[in-house]
Fold these 2 entries.
Entry 1:
Amino acid sequence: MRTEMLIDGEWTTGSGRTFATRDPATGETIAEIPEAGTTDVDSAVQAASRAFESAEWADMLPAARARLLLRLADLVEEHTEELARLETTDQGQPLGISGGISVPNVVDHLRYYAGWVTKITGITAPVSLPDVDYRTRREPLGVCGLITPWNFPLMILVWKLAPALATGNTVVVKPPEQAPLSTLRLAELVRQAGIPDGVVNVVTGGPEVGQALVRHPKVAKISFTGSTQVGREIAAEAGRALKRVSLELGGKAPSIIAADADLDAAVQGNIMGGLLNSGQVCAAYTRFYVDAERHDEFTEKLAGAAASMKLGPGLNEDTQMGPLVSGEHLAQVERYVDLGKAEGAELRTGGTRPDGELADGYFYRPTVFSGVTDDMTIAREEIFGPVLSVLSYEDPEELAARANDTDYGLAAVIWSRDISTANRLARRIKAGSVYVNMPPMLDAAAPWGGMKSSGLGREMGWEGIEAFTETKSIWTSLA
């Protein structure tokens, strides 16, 4: 596959500098990738700007644009196995996730937004002026910068790319430097699908490349998924430039286990919700509020389930949990575990790297703490790794306040056989998505995003169309 950047339909090494992308299961270099300079970013934005104004793209009939998205979806589906293995090799997630969740989700999003292309409508409204006709139309924003994270590089890219293209925008993509390969392979498929040159451009590199993209005056919108700290910086830059921005940021999802919960179902759902992709999920269930009478039983079962998980390279069929994405991130997870122990939490399982044949990779054992209190660092800060904290509660009336006592508000879950109680509690929790008796799931038709420090705006559903368009009012005198 190509490992260069794609700018205006041409593959380029840009400045000539490179960086390594590594297999997190072994630490070995997979490929050397170009490090874009500011001139490369400018070339990509200028190419996207020209493509946005070109008759080939701007005047393309909606049905024709829909066919391009459907063709791209077909190509992704045809290359599912290849893309899944590439994502697993570069990012670390087990094949069951990359092939069973990530790539199918990409196909679903492309087809879902292909269906919207011919259905984007404005309104007419009865204004209180004589002899005036009033209507609105939704129009694309222009050049959109798409900055994507390393935990689900391909899937989250298409959450942004599909609605951006469906609404007639052009894009410059900055994939994560830790895992850029699936994005570059998708760029090849974009060309194969027949999407015009310059409509989709890809520049690779580290934070400086993202900064150059955010600051470019011809970029009309930034869509970013990543850390809250970086999201704040992007929002500040975008605010000064009066540039559109949407942010999907961090999370610290509470999982509430009521006294009447099906404990075995709650344990399995929380293992899936907390340790999927080695816990490298913004919506991961990470702090568990358990009724005091069931605290010990739940903790024992949760620790047992976590300890039994099979660690290994994502390409191994029997692997249940793969490595963390990088050595740097592994060290950060270890730091949080050390803080948990230092602050008095009880380590029930995990808390170490595996040895033997996994020692060279970025593996970390699933870790469960009990005796955690609300003020501990591991209960308050996003760890983004396989670390689960169990807290207890006595009074159900305190649950909403404790669940909401966080800077984040991306997701939450409630486990209870009493659906009325669960839904009343769901109304009180400040999170973009609240699940009842299930792990965190996503669908192209369901809006996704966070409250508070978990972000601004929504992706997916009709909200994804709104995020990449603006409304124009057209007034016509009938006199």
Entry 2:
Amino acid sequence: MNAYLLLLGAIICEVIATSSLKLSNGFTNLVFSIITIIGYSASFYILSLALKTIPVGIAYAIWSGIGIIIISLIAWIFLKQSLDLAALIGMGFIIFGVVIINLFSNVSGH
């Protein structure tokens, strides 16, 4: 399987786990606590498979950067948490950085 598809799977699992972590209310809600634990476990397992091909620094930059963007959007849309201009500009830089890594880096595993 393509390592970048694995990385995408790891990101999706991490986003589900992080969203569930908020909803677990400090691990007092059993359903969301279980989803959190399973999501993070799956995320790290799938990330470990992607790391067989993708250099760890590149994979982690993409994994964490895209995760930050998606979680921020989920928090804004579903949890009604606000994003100020500085947050939006910062996320723009993250997206720009991930694009630069993927388009121009010789160590990106492409």
